[in-house]
Predict the 3D structure of the following.
Amino acid sequence: MNDTRNGFEKRAQRIKDKIMRTTLDMLRTSDPKRIRIADISKMAKVSQVTIYNYFGSKEALMREVFIGYIDKAIAEFIEFMDGHHTLKEKIEYIIFLEKEAYSDLPPGTIKDLVEEDPELAAYIEKVYREYTAPLVTRIIEEGKASGEISPDMPVENVLAFIQLYMNQYQAILAMAAQTPDREKFLEGMVHMFFYGICGKE
């Protein structure tokens, strides 16, 4: 009996994962508001009834897909921050955390999903409060202790400066795309973050 139940649960999980992967793929190229359960059903090759049985609604499906996407990004973020990287590399990762997401999920899609779903917005706020902010604060404190960040610089100011960069990442990436060497341009922006336009190290 247990083998039968386990087999059923594994098949059910595979179907659910397939639906979620299909939905994520569609979000990479389509406006969430334009995606219908019928479209997901056709692409995933499952019935609409199956999708409703597993998720209940399109909104619940979108939420679960995006939460999975965020959880994966946070796990990768934590792994990078705990790895053997320089402070400069860690700050670059933080500032341009979304540069990969930018090519994966369009920023407008992320914005629409969050604005349309208060539960999703609350989840992202919780993740920032419980994981992202404490980890970034720790990195800044370590930088101050090692002398890589001025010990007189309040953590709040460094966090605010990072936030300024992150708020403009779309514009920065658009500028980088216009240059002959995108990566070199982004490295220059990180260098300016640390040393200003005087370039003093």
Observations:
- The first helix runs from residue 2 to 27.
